[in-house]
Design brief:
Order of helices and strands: HHEEEEEEEEHH
Shape: globular
Distance between the termini: 33 Å
Number of helices: 4
Oligomer: single chain
Number of strands: 8
Structural class: alpha+beta
Bound molecules: nickel (II) ion
């Protein structure tokens, strides 16, 4: 694969109902310069598409890697695990894989996560409110879970119909 192909691939965001979005990603085991390059490309793709977060499966890579950037703070999540969570919040949520679709989703108010950095070292990060929401949304992507999975069947099918209408797709 040439470098230009790699860049093209990174910039294409997989949209629902692409089946890759429902798959469970594999843990990262090799921490090398390719991982660092991929994480940088993920940040670039997220910024180009005006997102606050992006997960590897959304660019077609089934690895437990995601990035979040909110209020000028950047976070790299590699093999993240929830250690603790508290409280509850409900707010409107969107996803780069669902352009133009927003829905209210309940999430914990605060979360503590164990993640690994680009060197493979374990780190603990915490987030609350919108940051917690972003961490949990991206971590769901790594397990094949989407924000519409939190909605009632009626709301979910209304969203699917809207997407099918917009794309001319079939369900
Ligand atoms: Ni998303």
């Amino acid at each position: 694969m040439s470098d230009s192909n790699l860049i093209d691939e990174v910039f294409e965001i997989k949209k629902f109902p692409d089946p890759i979005l429902k798959q469970v990603s594999k843990p990262v085991e090799v921490f090398d310069e390719n991982l660092e390059k991929f994480v940088n490309d993920l940040f670039t793709a997220m910024r180009v598409h005006d997102g606050v977060g992006l997960a590897a499966p959304q660019v077609g890579v089934l690895k437990k890697i995601a990035v979040v950037e909110y209020e000028e703070k950047s976070y790299v999540l590699i093999n993240p695990k929830i250690l603790e969570q508290k409280g509850i919040q409900e707010s409107e949520e969107g996803c780069l894989s669902f352009p133009g679709i927003y829905a209210n989703v309940k999430r914990p108010q605060w979360v503590k996560i164990e993640t690994q950095n680009l060197k493979g070292e374990k780190e603990i990060i915490e987030g609350e409110e919108y940051t917690a929401r972003a961490f949990l949304h991206e971590m769901d992507h790594l397990n094949g879970k989407l924000f519409i999975d939190y909605l009632s069947n009626i709301k979910k099918s209304a969203i699917k119909k809207k997407i099918a209408k917009n794309t001319g797709g079939h369900f």
